[in-house]
Structure to design on (221 residues):
């Protein structure tokens, strides 16, 4: 039986499509599971024990590190870096990459604000935080912002010799920002996990929409 164009397409691109499906579906499924329980007012068994364990091991040096990464994870780090990255890409005439980064950053921020107001989850109140917050808790904006930036940087650097260095550095930064929010007691672990999942699904989806499932021409090639 002769093969059809669909069969040929699946043979050529089936692996990439499957990887893309998993890369988008898994973080989106994780966010959906967490969001469903938050929307129904359920508590997560791991949230409070993790926060209490972190607080029980607080120390002056850890306080300072948590405050540093918390600030770098938003207004003093991620946001200025987002703006600088888009400006640099435009300066280098990489307009498609600049559009990808802009859509990823702006879309992630809008999704975060919308989700916070939709679910309206109160912040943890187990102790008086060193950096108190007054906005809603779910999902974590710091987690979404840092993961969005990390994913964008990894995509942009993937076809360069710097990709593993960027991936490792970005992963460490994301973990430190997320841990800082838990240590300071201003987010539940489920807030951070949901932020990471939503950001990954969004950035991978935007990248697939703009560049497909194959490496495209970008500044690192």
């Amino acid at each position: 039986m002769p093969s059809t164009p669909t069969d040929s397409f699946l043979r050529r691109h089936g692996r990439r499509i499957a990887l893309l499906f998993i890369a988008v579906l898994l973080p989106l499924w994780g966010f959906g599971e967490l969001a469903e329980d938050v929307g129904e007012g359920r508590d997560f068994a791991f949230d409070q024990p993790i926060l209490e364990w972190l607080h029980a091991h607080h120390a002056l040096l850890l306080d300072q590190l948590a405050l540093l990464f918390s600030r770098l994870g938003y207004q003093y780090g991620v946001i200025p870096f987002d703006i600088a990255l888009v400006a640099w890409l435009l300066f280098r005439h990489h307009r498609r990459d600049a559009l990808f980064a802009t859509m990823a950053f702006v879309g992630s921020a809008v999704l975060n604000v919308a989700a916070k107001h939709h679910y309206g989850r109160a912040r943890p109140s187990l102790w008086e935080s060193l950096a108190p917050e007054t906005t809603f808790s779910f999902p974590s904006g710091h987690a979404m912002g840092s993961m969005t930036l990390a994913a964008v940087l990894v995509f942009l650097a993937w076809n360069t010799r710097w990709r593993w260095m960027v991936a490792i550095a970005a992963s460490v930064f994301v973990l430190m920002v997320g841990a800082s929010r838990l240590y300071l007691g201003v987010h539940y672990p489920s807030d951070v996990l949901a932020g990471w999942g939503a950001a990954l699904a969004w950035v991978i989806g935007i990248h697939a929409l703009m560049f497909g499932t194959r490496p495209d021409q970008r500044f690192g090639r």
User: Anything to note?
Assistant: The radius of gyration is 19 Å.
